[in-house]
Design a protein that fits this description.
Length: about 280
């Protein structure tokens, strides 16, 4: 199969990123100090080169949005510049972790502003996911008391983690309140109610800790219980017990019993693990 222009560009960018020299922790902090104190161009260039892997990897996740990968990388670099100017080493967060938040925010904002594919997914599952992502997340969180991972959402909706990541990014970008850019386009002002990078990082780490608990709870459900939970809790338009019963060849009362049993299993595992 012939490679597209974006495929070639992404391959070239990955090779360039792989060849870029990494920075030691002390050197990186010194470059950040120079950037913040003197707007040092050489230090900034070295920092951009060292973190090109991060920018390219993030841009690659949005490659299917229909936007040029080169443009996404350029936007990601602007996010990296913003991170360098705002970073506070005294807060104990690694620069790469902090920068990842800004890079993703900038790229997702640009991809959504110029999207051609995400706005009109080509598959039935993707369209369904785009329309119902928020309700799926809410339903899973209500059922488990924990924020669901992408893998969990994919598992219960019959899609892939990659699809979930794309739609999640699209919806997150849509929710972010972005103010006017500086003259050079490098400044991204977030709304007052949006979490700070530090808060977002802490939430992400806590979410990772909870993933095992959620996975363990949902793993206790058999195929029929999962089917009932998905149709009764996770769908935008919850189906009635009677409708599910007809689909499964069961009585309305039997479906109700399966739903109640599934909820008991989820609660039992979650209480035991979180306690």
């Amino acid at each position: 199969m012939r490679a597209t222009t974006d495929d070639v560009s992404l391959a070239q960018l990955r090779r360039t990123a792989a060849a870029a020299p990494m920075l030691g922790a002390e050197v990186e902090l010194e470059y950040l100090r120079r950037i913040q104190a003197h707007d040092d161009g050489r230090a900034l260039r070295a920092l951009l080169d060292a973190h090109l892997r991060l920018v390219v990897a993030t841009a690659a996740r949005f490659a299917r949005s229909g936007v040029s990968v080169a443009e996404l990388v350029a936007e990601g670099n602007l996010g990296l510049v913003e991170a360098a100017r705002r970073f506070d080493a005294g807060k104990g967060t690694r620069f790469s972790t902090y920068a990842a938040w800004w890079v993703r925010a900038r790229i997702s904002r640009f991809a959504m502003g110029n999207r051609r594919i995400v706005a009109a997914p080509s598959t039935r599952n993707a369209r369904k996911l785009l329309a119902g992502m928020r309700s799926v997340e809410r339903a899973l969180q209500q059922a488990s008391g924990e924020r669901p991972s992408r893998e969990m959402i994919a598992a219960v909706t019959g899609t892939s983690a990659e699809d979930v990541a794309m739609v999640e990014s699209a919806l997150s970008a849509r929710d972010v309140s972005v103010g006017p850019s500086d003259e050079d386009g490098s400044s991204v002002e977030l709304g007052a109610n949006d979490p700070s990078p530090e808060q977002a990082i802490a939430e992400a780490e806590e979410c990772e800790r909870r993933e095992r608990v959620v996975a363990l709870a949902l793993a206790q459900l058999d195929r029929r219980e999962r089917e009932v939970v998905q149709r009764r809790i996770l769908e935008d338009d919850a189906e009635t017990l009677a409708d599910i019963g007809r689909m499964l060849g069961l009585s309305r009362e039997r479906v109700r019993q399966i739903e109640a049993r599934a909820k008991r299993k989820l609660r039992a595992v979650l209480v035991a693990e979180v306690a």
